[in-house]
Amino acid sequence: MKSKRVTIRQVAAEAGVSITTVSHVLNDVPGLRVNPVTRQRIEEVAARLGYVPNGLAQSLRTQRSNTIGLIGDEIVTTPFAGKLILGAQEVALARNAVLFVVSTGYERAVEDREIEELLRRQVDGILYASMFHRELALPQQLSSVPTVLLNAESTDSRVPWVAPDEVAGGRDAARTLIDAGHRRLAFVNNIDDIPASSGRLAGFRSEMAQAGLDPDDLLVTTAETDPAGGYAATLPLLSSPQRPTAVFCFNDRLAMGAYRAAAELGLRVPDDVSIMGFDNQEYVADGIYPGLTTIELPHYDMGVWAAERLFADIDGAAAETPSVLLRGPVVHRGSVAPPPRTP
């Protein structure tokens, strides 16, 4: 049998106050003057009776739905989506708001339908997320609602966005290897021309120059970003008589292939060659031996920043930082060590 919803009238009767007083207290009306003892009694009665505010009535009063949407292209299939969503959801929860999450699978028709559905539900704002760092144009339908790009840069300077600082990540990777004593370095990069591949390469070379090394000495090759690609790209590098003592891979999956290439050549990681990744895909980085030292993409922090920026727009607050690049930390495991001594 379905239980009846507790009404504000019941809370008022139980607490011995007016309906108006209960409404003002439970909705935290600004400037309300009420005895602290009375406020506490109302809140305790509401909790004991299981009173739940009427969301529709609140929306009519505040002109807000207390909901936001997150639209992503690969929410279901990418390992990073969870952290993006978690960061945004925790901000929404702190604001007593609900986060709707929809996945488009890169299908434009699906995206159009999902956007229209979120707008029909009158969400207060939308996080438009990409599962890899790229430049995006905002769909025209989103021009009518506050929107923040998540894990992507906007082609429109008026649209706020947050993305990883790829250049800083490349610099941090180079610095980690250089500090370990390496001078003969290689970079297995992504074959696709995207901000992550160009940014990480630029940062790596910049840090080499800062350390007094010639950036042109960096051995650079490209590959499909999977273990097979990492193996195929790393095998000839490590087969060379002047092989590098350290290999930086565009992502952790490439690094898996680099481990295989090293093992096939009888090279030990990190005793004979150091290998470093990027992303911190934990099921990869912790699942290979020795554990992979890598740069973590700041997905959780990006989710938090994007949601906070979105709520600032919803509230009409001026933002000091319209858009931002966030740096991820180095996660040290066991794949980087000083280079082997030459006889």
Structural overview:
By secondary structure, the chain is of the alpha/beta class. It has 3 domains: 1-49, Orthogonal Bundle (434 Repressor (Amino-terminal Domain)), CATH 1.10.260.40; 67-164 and 299-326, Response regulator (Rossmann fold); 166-297, 3-Layer(aba) Sandwich (Rossmann fold). Helix content is 41%, strand content 19%. The protein has helices at 8-15, 19-26, 36-49, 55-62, 81-94, 108-120, 166-179, 195-210, 227-239, 252-264, 282-285, 299-314, and strands at residues 67-72, 98-103, 125-136, 147-154, 161-164, 185-190, 219-223, 246-249, 274-279, 293-296, 324-326, 330-331. The strands form 2 sheets. It has a 6-stranded parallel sheet with strand order 2-1-3-4-5-11, with helices on both faces. It has a 6-stranded mixed sheet with strand order 7-6-8-9-10-12, with helices on both faces. Strand 6 (185-190), helix 8 and strand 7 form a beta-alpha-beta unit. Helix 7 packs across helix 8 (195-210). The chain is elongated and about 85 Å long. The N and C termini lie far apart (83 Å).
Give me a quick take on this structure.
This protein is an alpha/beta fold and 343 residues long.
